[in-house]
Structures are given as C-alpha cells and as structure tokens.
Automatic annotation (TrEMBL):
Disulfide bonds join C126-C159, C127-C143. Coiled coil: none annotated. InterPro entries: Tetraspanin/Peripherin (IPR018499), Tetraspanin_animals (IPR000301), Tetraspanin_EC2_sf (IPR008952). This is Tetraspanin. The gene is tspan33b. Belongs to the tetraspanin (TM4SF) family. It comes from Echeneis naucrates. Pfam families: Tetraspanin (PF00335). Keywords: Cell junction, Cell membrane, Cytoplasm, Disulfide bond, Glycoprotein, Membrane, Signal, Transmembrane, Transmembrane helix.
Length: 228
C-alpha cells in the first residue's frame, strides 16, 4: 500500500514536471523527457503493487501470480542491464560522455541542466568531462580568439575551489582559467575531469555500490513467490 501511494506520487511529480517545463532542451539532451520516464515508472509500479496488495487482501491467485511474474521480469531486466553495463563499460562511458557534453553545450539554455552540472562539479570536485578545457564546448565559454562572449575562456563558478576565510564570494574566479595550464588552474578551480572523479568515487565506494544493489534486489527476490 505504501509503494502504491509512492507510485502515485511519482506519477504526479512526472505530470507536474511535464506541464511546468517551458523548453524542450532537457528532453533533447536525455533523448527521452525524464518527466515521461517518471510517469511510465510510476504507472508500471502502481500496476505491480496493485496486483500484490489487492491480490493478498482478496487472496486472488491470478493477481498474485501476475504480481510475482511482473517482479521476476523487472528483476531479470535489472540484472541484464547491470551485466551489460559491466561488460560494455567502454560504451557506457561513451554514452555518459555524450550526455555530459550535451549538458555542457546547453548549460546556459536550461536551468535544470545548469543545476545538474553545478551539482555534479561541486559534489565530485571536478570540472568538465576530461578536464576544465571541456567548457569550450559551450558557446559562452568557448576559448577561441573570435568569441565575443564576456565569459570567453572561463569555467562556471561551480568549478571553483572554496577559499577558506573568504567573506565575499568571488563568482568570477573561473574567468580565464582555460588559458592557464593544469598547475596554474589548480590554484583557483578543480582541474580534474568528472569522468576520472566518477571512476575514483566508484572504486572507493565499491562496498556501498554493492550494498545498494543488494538492497534493491533482495526485496524483489523474496517477493518472487508470494504463494509459498
Ligand atoms: C584536457 O583533456 C583533453 C582531452 O582529453 C586533452 O587533449 C588536453 O590536453 C587536456 N588539457 C589539460 C590541460 O590537461
Ligand atoms: C569554439 O568555437 C569555434 C568557432 O565557433 C569552433 O570552431 C570550435 O570547435 C569551438 N570549440 C570547441 C571545443 O567546441
Ligand atoms: C592541486 O591543489 C591541491 C590543493 O589546493 C593539492 O592538494 C593538489 O596536490 C594539487 N594538484 C596538483 C596536480 O598540483
């Protein structure tokens, strides 16, 4: 019942996000609108939890079997995606790079993408995908001489390392860093690319990643056969 309420909430958030969104930049970036993904996941989840909840209440074998079969299907799909992601890690990395590249290109066009990139860069203490010079992918930060933008050769503020004891935050600390070499840039920003940071994060949190996967899988496996 709890999961049923939760799935309705997901659908509501998805519909709200779909209606609210004025531009389609995010949809173009993700190929599919994340709001639509939320709605689909919510509806499927509502269907499955409905079968489990009503099936158990009414002792309806057909509903319970549908519930069990759906969960098995979902679990096997997750397993397949995890295994494919593991064996095709190079392709996974390429797909992620394409996504981050689009997010950088459209950084100024869409507030959601801007917030997402800022969050990633601050959280992982990184800048760009390979390194900070990736911000040239963006029209505003592009470092070619002919670029008339006032932010030419800059990187966003979210790349900046916090200065201890600084009372007035310098939002222009990333200006011109693309012309600097790695060591110079390291004085004001995180020069490391987010790809390397993500790999480092996964390596140092392997136990957490495994525990999360197990935590997701266990309830599904134990619910495989509600008839026993
Ligand atoms: C940044 O990454 C690009 C692509 O991997 C590389 O060509 C370039 O030399 C790097 N720049 C710095 C300053 O590390
Ligand atoms: C920067 O802009 C120039 C001119 O528009 C373009 O040729 C170049 O490819 C851009 N740089 C990057 C890294 O995309
Ligand atoms: C960059 O600066 C940080 C401290 O601000 C330092 O710990 C780190 O070793 C530096 N990295 C390089 C490559 O110099």
């Amino acid at each position: 019942l709890f999961l049923q309420v939760f799935s309705l909430l997901i659908v509501a958030i998805g519909v709200y996000a779909r209606v609210q969104k004025a531009t389609d930049t995010v949809r173009d970036t993700f190929l599919i609108d994340p709001a639509v993904i939320l709605i689909v996941v919510g509806v499927v989840m509502f269907f499955i939890t409905f079968c489990g909840c009503i099936g158990a209440l009414r002792e309806n074998i057909r509903l319970l079997k549908t519930f069990s079969f759906s969960l098995t299907l979902v679990f096997l799909t997750q397993l397949a995606i995890a295994i494919l992601g593991f064996f095709y890690s190079d392709q996974t990395r390429d797909a992620l790079e394409r996504f981050v590249k689009k997010a950088i290109v459209h950084y100024r066009d869409d507030l959601d993408l801007q917030n997402l990139m800022d969050y990633i860069q601050k959280e992982f203490q990184c800048c760009g995908w390979n390194n900070y010079t990736d911000w040239s992918w963006n029209l505003y930060f592009n470092c070619t001489h002919t670029n008339p933008s006032s932010e030419r050769c800059a990187v966003p503020f979210s790349c900046c390392t916090p200065v201890p004891g600084e009372t007035v935050i310098n939002t222009m600390c990333g200006f011109g860093v693309q012309t600097q070499n790695y060591l110079e840039a390291n004085k004001s920003i995180y020069p490391v690319g987010c790809a390397d940071r993500a790999v480092m994060w996964i390596d140092s949190h392997l136990l957490l990643v495994g525990a999360l996967a197990l935590g997701l899988a266990l309830p599904q496996v134990t619910a495989f056969n509600p008839l026993t």
